[in-house]
Design brief:
heterodimer, A: 643 residues, alpha/beta, Glutaredoxin, Rossmann fold, Ubiquitin-like (UB roll), five-stranded mixed β-sheet, B: 195 residues, alpha+beta, 3 domains, two-stranded antiparallel sheet, 6 helices, globular
Chain lengths: 643, 195
C-alpha cells in the first residue's frame, strides 16, 4: 500500500473504497466483541462461511465480523444488510435457515427476532429495538458497522478526516479552542475538562511531551472502553494523534489491561495499518507532523487506572500513585508534560473536530456535554452497553433502555461510577445523568459503570463487597487507604454478621473522613463512597442490622433463618431431598421441619419448594417459631389419601 | 538559589527553592510528626502523619508536608482541630499493628490516641518503607522490598541478596520504628542463609 502523502490522497483512497462498495450487496454482520465471542460468535461465523459456501453464495454475500453492538444480553447478534434485519442469540444451528430463507428468499425469520415485551411484538430492524431506539450512539454506533481490523471500513465511514482537517485546516491552537469550547470532560472518572488539561501540557515548557490513552478499565462490570478499543480502535488512535498534534507531542502510549487480549490485538492491527498508510509515523499525510504510538499492557492492578500510578507503571516501576501537587499534565511520564485521557474521551475528539463544538454541545446538561457510554449490568433485563446524551434520567436509562428489573422484583438502587462510586436510591431515579449531578447525589460518573440492584440486595453487604474490593486493590502505600479500608471492611463484615455495635456507623464515618482528607490518591479519597452513599440513603438498613440483628433484604446469611410454614407444607419431600446438609426432617405427607443448627442458609429449600405451596420463607430479626411436636406433623388426608 | 519566605505556625521561616514544607519546618526547629520521612531518602508520603494546613491564593487545604514543596508566601499551620483529629485516627490505625512501639506511644500520648480502638493485627509493620528505601536509595542493594499490595502488602528480604549483603551492613535496623524489620530478618536468616 502506498503511503498517503496528502489530504487529497486520503480522499482519493476513500472514494476508491466507497466506489468499490455496493450498498445493495447483501452483507451479514456478526458481533464479535468479547461478550459475543463468549456466547459463541466464533462458531456462528464459521457456520455462516460454511453455509454460504455450501449454498453457493460465497461470492455474492459479504460477512463482516464487527465489534460489540452493545446488546450483550442477547448476543451473538446478527444483522443482515441492506435490509437491517436483526437476529438475536444466534447459534450455528440457526445459520442454514438464515442463509436459505433470509439471504436467498428475503424472508424474515420471526423466531429469531427481538420481541418487544411491552407490546409483545416482534421487531425486524435493529434500530427499532427499544434498547437501541432510545440511545444516541455517536461514539459507539460505528462499532456495529465496521470490521475493527479493516482500515478500509473505518475510512469508508469518514475515518481520519478529522485528523486531516486538524493537520491541514486548523492550527493546534484552533484544535485546542474547539475541544475547550466543546467542554469535553474526561470520561474515565474525574470529569476534568480535557481542553484545560491539554492546554496545561501545551503551555508547559518542558520537552518532550506525551499523550496517553488510559485503557486500564478496572471497574467490575464495566467494559465500554474494551468494546471501543476492540470494535473501533482507529477512532481512539485518530483522537490520540490529534491530541498529540495539539499539545506538541510526538509519542503516544496506550496503557491497556492485559486481560483485554482482543483489544490489544485489534489495536495492534490498527496501528500497523495506520503506519503502512502514513497515518501514523513520520510526516503524517505529508503535514510534517511525526507521531508514533506504543502499546503497553498492564499487569492487572486496579490502581494503575489512577493517572500517576499508570505513568509510574509505564516507566517500568511498581504501579503506585505518587503525590501530584504538580499536575501530571505538567510533570507526568518521566517527569514530562503528559496528557492522559480515557479511551472514550479520545474517541470523542474526532467527532468534535469533524462536526464542531457547537454540534457537540447541543447535547447534554449545563456542565456535561455530549454523550456517555454506560455499562448497564446487574438486576436489569437488557444487560449491555448503552450510549445516551448526558442529562438523560436514570429512570429512562434503566427502564426505557434497560427494560427494567427482571422477575417482577422491585428496583432498589443503582450504583454508578465503579467500586468507589455510590448508590442512588429509587427516589432519585429522575436524576439527570451528568458529572456534577451524580457527584452531588453522593456518587460519581466514574468511567460509566451502572450496576442495578433489586430488593433482594442488602445495601450494607453491597457496601462491604465494594470496600473489600478496594481493600484488595489499594496499592497499600498510604496509611489512610490501606489501614482505614482494612478497618472499615472489618466493621462492615461485623455488621453483616450480626456483630455490629452502636457507634459503628460513627467510626465508619470517621474513617471515611480520614481516607478522603488524607489519602494519597483518588482511589483512597473516593473509596469510602460505597459506605457513605448507602448510609446516606439506606441508614435504616444499617440500624436494623446493628440494633435488631435484622437484615431487611433477607440477604445476610448470619442474620436470616429459613422456616417451613407448617400450615403450607404438604410433605412433598422435595426440599428434604435437596438439602445438602440433611437439615430437614420429615417424611411423605409429614410436615417438614428445618433443624436450624444444621442449616447452612444455602436457600435450596426455598428455591425448590413448589410455587403452589410456597411453604418455605426467610425470616430475619425474629425468633424461628418452635417446631410442631412430632405427633402433630402428619398431614391429614386432603383430597386423595396416599398409599 | 531563590529564597522563599513562608509563615509556619505564625513564625517567619525562610526556605530554599525545592525544599518541602516539612524540611523547611524542621530547619526552623518546628516539629511535625512523621514516620516515613528520612533526610537521606526521597520523600515518600506514606504515613500521612505530617499533613498540615496550607493557605495560598486565599484557599486553605490539607497537604502532606513531606511531599509538598515550599512556596513563597505560603502560610502553614501544623496543628488544628482537624489535623489533630486525623492524626489521632491515623495513630490508632497504626497502634492496631504496633501498640508498643515507642515512637507511636509518644505520639499517641500527644494526640490522645486510644491504642485499643481497633482490633489488633498480626503484623506489626507500619509500612513506613524506611528499610526498603534506605536499602535501595542509600545502599543501592535492594535486599529488602515490598511484596503484594493493599492489606496484603508486607516487607520481605530477598534471600539471595540478603545473605550476601546484610550480615555486614544492617544499617536499616535502627530505622525501623517497630522492630518488625529485625523479625523479618531473623526469619530470612533462619530460612535461607547458608550455614
Amino acid at each position: 500500500m502506498p503511503q498517503l502523502s496528502s489530504p487529497a490522497d486520503l480522499e482519493q483512497l476513500r472514494q476508491e473504497i466507497l466506489s468499490g462498495r455496493d450498498a445493495e450487496r447483501p452483507c451479514i454482520t456478526l458481533c464479535s466483541g468479547s461478550a459475543c465471542l463468549a456466547t459463541g460468535s466464533g462458531a456462528v461465523a464459521a457456520a455462516i462461511a460454511e453455509e454460504l459456501e455450501k449454498q453457493g453464495l460465497s461470492d455474492r454475500v459479504d460477512i463482516r465480523r464487527t465489534g460489540c453492538h452493545g446488546f450483550c444480553e442477547r448476543g451473538p447478534i446478527v444483522v443482515i444488510h441492506p435490509e437491517g434485519i436483526c437476529y438475536l442469540q444466534i447459534t450455528p444451528e440457526d445459520v442454514p435457515e438464515i442463509v436459505a430463507r433470509t439471504i436467498r428468499e428475503g424472508e424474515v425469520i420471526e423466531r429469531l427476532l427481538c420481541v418487544d415485551p411491552s407490546v409483545n411484538e416482534a421487531i425486524v430492524h435493529e434500530s427499532e429495538i427499544p434498547f437501541y431506539k432510545n440511545q444516541t450512539r455517536h461514539v459507539f454506533g460505528s462499532n456495529g458497522s465496521i470490521d475493527p481490523k479493516s482500515l478500509d471500513d473505518y475510512l469508508a465511514i469518514g475515518g481520519y478526516s478529522a485528523l486531516s482537517k486538524a493537520l491541514f485546516e486548523m492550527s493546534a491552537e484552533q484544535v485546542l479552542e474547539e475541544v475547550k469550547r466543546a467542554n469535553l470532560r474526561g470520561r474515565g472518572g474525574g470529569g476534568f475538562p480535557a481542553g484545560r488539561k491539554w492546554e496545561g501540557s501545551r503551555d508547559a515548557p518542558d520537552e518532550p511531551k506525551y499523550v496517553i490513552v488510559n485503557a486500564d478499565e478496572g471497574d467490575p462490570g464495566a467494559y465500554m472502553d474494551r468494546s471501543l478499543l476492540e470494535g473501533n480502535p482507529h477512532s481512539v488512535l485518530e483522537g490520540l494523534i490529534i491530541g498529540g498534534y495539539t499539545i506538541g507531542a510526538h509519542e503516544g502510549y496506550v496503557y491497556v489491561r492485559q486481560e483485554y487480549p482482543l483489544a490489544v490485538e485489534n489495536l495492534g492491527v490498527a496501528i500497523a495499518r495506520a503506519e503502512e498508510h502514513g497515518l501514523l509515523g513520520e510526516n503524517i499525510l505529508g503535514s510534517g507532523f511525526d507521531f508514533t504510538v506504543k502499546v503497553h499492557q498492564g499487569a492487572g492492578a486496579f490502581v494503575c487506572g489512577e493517572s500517576t500510578a499508570l505513568m509510574t507503571a509505564l516507566e517500568g516501576r511498581v504501579g503506585e500513585p505518587r503525590p501530584k501537587y504538580v499536575r501530571s499534565n505538567v510533570k507526568g511520564l518521566w517527569g514530562k508534560p503528559s496528557v492522559l485521557n480515557n479511551v472514550e474521551t479520545w474517541a470523542n475528539v474526532p467527532l468534535i473536530i469533524n462536526r464542531g463544538a457547537d454540534w457537540f454541545t447541543q447535547l447534554g446538561t449545563e456542565g456535561s456535554k455530549g454523550t456517555k457510554i454506560f455499562s448497564l449490568v446487574g438486576k436489569i433485563n437488557n444487560t449491555g452497553l448503552v450510549e445516551v446524551p448526558m442529562g438523560m434520567t436514570l429512570r429512562e436509562i434503566i427502564y426505557d433502555i434497560g427494560g427494567g428489573i427482571p422477575g417482577g422484583k422491585k428496583f432498589k438502587a443503582v450504583q454508578t461510577g465503579g467500586p468507589s462510586g455510590g448508590c442512588i436510591p429509587e427516589e432519585l431515579l429522575d436524576l439527570e445523568v451528568g458529572f456534577d449531578e451524580l457527584t452531588e447525589a453522593g456518587s460519581m460518573m466514574g468511567s460509566g459503570g451502572m450496576i442495578v440492584v433489586d430488593e433482594d440486595t442488602c445495601m450494607v453487604d453491597f457496601a462491604r463487597y465494594f470496600i473489600n474490593f478496594l481493600t484488595e486493590e489499594s496499592c497499600g502505600k498510604c496509611l489512610p487507604c490501606r489501614e482505614g479500608l482494612r478497618q472499615m471492611h472489618k466493621i462492615l463484615t461485623n455488621i453483616c454478621e450480626g456483630r455490629g455495635q452502636p457507634g459503628d456507623i460513627e467510626t465508619l464515618e470517621e474513617l471515611s473522613e480520614v481516607a478522603i482528607e488524607a489519602s494519597l490518591c483518588a482511589l483512597g479519597k473516593s473509596a469510602p463512597n460505597p459506605f457513605l452513599s448507602t448510609v446516606r440513603y439506606f441508614r435504616d438498613e444499617y440500624l436494623a442490622h446493628i440494633e435488631e440483628k435484622r437484615c431487611p433484604a433477607l440477604s445476610c446469611k448470619a442474620l436470616i433463618s429459613y422456616h417451613i410454614d407448617p400450615e403450607k407444607c404438604q410433605g412433598c419431600m422435595i426440599c428434604l431431598r435437596k438439602c445438602p446438609t440433611q437439615a430437614i426432617e420429615g417424611g411423605k405427607r409429614t410436615i417438614h421441619v428445618i433443624d436450624q443448627d444444621k442449616c447452612t442458609r444455602c436457600g435450596s429449600c426455598l428455591d425448590v419448594c413448589p410455587d403452589k405451596f410456597s411453604a418455605v420463607r426467610k425470616i430475619s430479626g425474629e425468633p424461628v417459631p418452635p417446631p410442631l411436636p412430632e405427633a402433630q406433623r402428619a398431614i391429614a388426608g386432603k383430597g386423595k389419601a396416599d398409599g | 538559589m531563590a529564597e522563599l519566605r513562608m509563615q509556619i505556625d505564625g513564625r517567619e521561616v525562610i526556605a530554599e527553592e525545592g525544599m518541602t514544607v516539612l524540611e523547611a519546618a524542621l530547619g526552623a526547629g518546628i516539629e511535625i510528626p512523621s514516620l516515613c520521612y528520612h533526610e537521606k531518602l526521597e520523600p515518600f508520603g506514606g504515613c500521612r502523619l505530617c499533613l498540615v494546613e496550607v493557605e495560598s491564593g486565599g484557599r486553605t487545604r490539607l497537604v502532606v508536608s513531606c511531599v509538598y514543596l515550599a512556596e513563597d508566601g505560603l502560610v502553614v499551620r501544623t496543628r488544628s482541630e482537624k489535623i489533630d483529629k486525623i492524626r489521632k485516627t491515623l495513630l490508632e490505625l497504626l497502634l492496631a499493628h504496633a501498640p508498643d512501639a515507642p515512637a507511636l506511644q509518644e505520639l499517641a500520648e500527644e494526640y490522645g490516641a486510644d491504642r485499643n480502638r481497633f482490633e489488633k493485627e498480626a503484623s506489626f509493620c507500619v509500612h513506613c518503607g524506611l528499610c526498603v528505601r534506605y536499602c535501595a536509595e542509600v545502599k543501592q542493594k535492594h535486599a529488602v522490598g515490598f511484596i503484594d499490595r493493599g492489606i496484603g502488602k508486607e516487607i520481605s528480604f530477598i534471600p539471595e541478596i540478603a545473605a550476601r549483603e546484610c550480615p555486614s551492613c544492617k544499617e536499616c535496623f535502627p530505622l525501623c520504628p517497630t522492630s518488625y524489620l529485625q523479625a523479618a530478618y531473623v526469619l530470612v536468616e533462619g530460612l535461607a542463609f547458608p550455614p
